[in-house]
Amino acid sequence: MPDMFDVVQSEIILGPSLFWRIRGFTDTLFQKVSIIVLEAFSEFGHFMFLFFVGLELKLDSFFRTWKRATCITFFETLFSGLLGVGLSSFLWSMVAHDGIKMTFRLFMVVNISFTAFLVLARILVELKMLTTELGSLPMCIAALYDGFIWILLALLPHFSGSGIMSV
């Protein structure tokens, strides 16, 4: 099993998901200044890792797989969109605040749709599959898919401010 799973487990346990919810945990373990420095080093490390992954990738493999990747991305977007709309319809009845229902649906679609691009890249690097065609196809799919989802995320504030999208 790749080491990335151990990293994800430790981030869940030590990160804001679990232990940081315990009152006084962060104050006891870290000073406020050190958290800012640790977050900066973390972001820099992620940036450098993705930079080196980008250096390893072969663009010709992306160009060979773009047709399959585009088709798979389309169906992946369709599936996650339907899943997000279905889940948002279920959750809307629970929260039922005043607001634009379509914005809530789009928000749910965007949240369900993000891929863990960094995790995928790290797993493919550890398994030495990044430069193979089998490894470049999921990277190309994830890049296309995340690009589309980032565009939807950028459009989300526009839809929430106007009543044209209300359903």
TrEMBL record:
Assigned keywords, A-Z: Ion transport, Membrane, Potassium, Potassium transport, Transmembrane, Transmembrane helix, Transport
Pfam families: Na_H_Exchanger (PF00999)
Gene3D superfamilies noted in UniProt: 1.20.1530.20
Localization, UniProt: Membrane; Plastid, Chloroplast envelope
Transmembrane helix keyword on record: yes
Membrane-topology descriptor: Multi-pass membrane protein
InterPro entries, per database record: Cation/H_exchanger_TM (IPR006153), CPA2_transporter (IPR050794), Na+/solute_symporter_sf (IPR038770)
Family matches, as PANTHER family: CATION/H + ANTIPORTER, K(+)_H(+) ANTIPORTER 1
Task performed by this protein: May function as sodium-coupled metabolite transporter across the chloroplast envelope.
Family: Belongs to the monovalent cation:proton antiporter 2 (CPA2) transporter (TC 2.A.37) family. CHX (TC 2.A.37.4) subfamily.
The name this protein goes by in its record: Cation/H(+) antiporter 18
Protein species of origin: Platanthera guangdongensis
Gene designation: CHX18
